[in-house]
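agent> Task received from the user: take the single chain below, predict its 3D structure, and emit structure tokens. No templates, no multimer pairing.
agent> Plan: (1) validate residues, (2) run structure prediction, (3) serialize to tokens, (4) report one or two observations.
agent> Step 1 OK, no nonstandard residues flagged.
tool_call: predict_structure(input=
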Amino acid sequence: MNRRKFLYQSGLLAAGALAAFSWVGCQNDAPASEEKQEA
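)
tool_result: status=success, residues=39
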């Protein structure tokens, strides 16, 4: 295996997971805050 390629893929995977996690968190926070403001 090529170590550089492995590090690149692992870093890309980690960045994608972090971005997806933060995006899902924003999507979950927005409706909750809107519901709290309405109630």
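agent> Step 4: summary for the user.
The first helix runs from residue 3 to 38.
agent> Done.
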